[in-house]
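Worked Example 4.2. Consider the chain below.
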Amino acid sequence: MSFEKPGTENLEKFESIKELEHFIKGAAERCRNESVPLSNDGSIDMLAYMDIYPGHVEDDLRKVREGKTNAKDIHEEQLGRDGEKLEMLAYAIFAKNLGENFVVARSAPHDDKINGVDTILLDRKTGKLVCAFDEVGDTTGSVYNDKLEKVQRCNRDGGAHLKYGLGLDEEKKIKLMNVRNVPLFYIALPKDRINKGIAEFIPEAERQSDFEKKLFAYFTATITQQISGLELYGKLHPELKEKLSAFKNMVSALEKKPEKGK
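Applying the procedure from the previous section yields the following structure tokens:
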């Protein structure tokens, strides 16, 4: 996505988001070196699935493009909007902190629009997509409440579905595949905290600002709380419950490790 250079008053914000974009591009390139088909914005490249879905990929891409003609989609797709900025920030934070144990990717445009998934985590050991995230640039109001209800309903119904998903084959190599029963979590952050996170983001894989560390701690705490809420329901899909447990154990282990970038 291209940017137009703003006036002097917004130059600092422009430079910060360009640095974030540059980091994401580098993270995506590292994943491509592992045969993960990511575009420069960190999203799964649907064209890599042409052999899996003959005749379907181009149709799905066309539907995504056509879907952007309504005002709501245009609002969400513009990079300067809060939801898109939070997607970028969350992807970068997760890539820094979880990239050693997980393949972190933004979902394919189809799964973003149709299945409501923004970011996914693939466990490098088990080869399973342990969770997915749906980001919203607000913590109150109707948009936030609608997102919360949608995520809860999705998990009660068995979890998220990704047509353009990832897994590992028997040789631990990346496998392009349809994936179901993926736990879905929401990540919400107010506009001013999104902007602060972008402004204080250090575009280096081995370094983090104090605010980045606080954001990652907030993200994991939010997810842990959502897992606890889901565990109150006794009839969750068995595979979803297994993935919930695996991710909860991973978060618990992270809390015991020294902070990265310290």
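Strands lie at 102-106, 119-123, 129-136, 160-168, 174-182, 184-188. Confidence is low (pLDDT under 50) at residues 69-80. Compare this with Example 4.1 before moving on.
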